[in-house]
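fwd from M.: "can u put these together and see what the complex looks like"

so here's what she sent:
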Amino acid sequence: MTQDELKTLVGRAALDYVQHGSVVGVGTGSTVDKFIDALGAALAADPQRVAGAVSSSVRSTERLMALGVKVLPAESVTGLAVYVDGADEINRQGHMIKGGGAALTREKIVADLAERFVCIADESKLVQTLGHFPLPVEVVPMATAQVMRRFTALGGSPKLREGVMTDNGNVIVDVSKLNITDPAQMESDVNQWPGVVTVGIFARNKASVCLLGTPAGVKTLTF
Ligand code: 5RP
């Protein structure tokens, strides 16, 4: 199976977690694109399948709307049963690194509205310890140099993501060489640094379930 086929598999499987007629939270990325495609197809077959979606990015909003899914502003809902999103890395506790697609801030906002975070990923994303994938951090531009100095002091190797501006008008710093042994602590610490908008560690908003695409089918991890 190709990586693309594994993404299609878990994108479709995530539909089983979406209650009929509900509003669903939708993340961002190539795996989520497969979920959106599955949602669009389900809606075409049954116009009541979902009442709408709360989206975490301009990219996902455009794809949802093109498939006829109504997109609601996050401010218009008081809560969501389920948020479906991908991850750059996930460990066996359900902690994740996210932000490869630069949508981490809105992703964390929508995830925070949801009772359950359904993570969809191919099996290459499952790791023992977070940090092999460079940690994305959304930063207010004038704080970039100072935030990078702080990561260097922690032993990290920060790099500005060239030519990228987030949907919120900020920059992304990607930090490699971090060994994230205590994700919740690092998430809290880095979030305190002035100018950090969001750190791409999702430990406080961790996955409730992960649908992992493997050649043998979908493996379900619950946390
Ligand atoms: C975007 C994200 C994505 O969920 C993450 O990058 C995984 O993307 P993909 O499904 O394309 O591998 O956090 O900000």
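replying to her w this: The longest strand covers residues 114-122.
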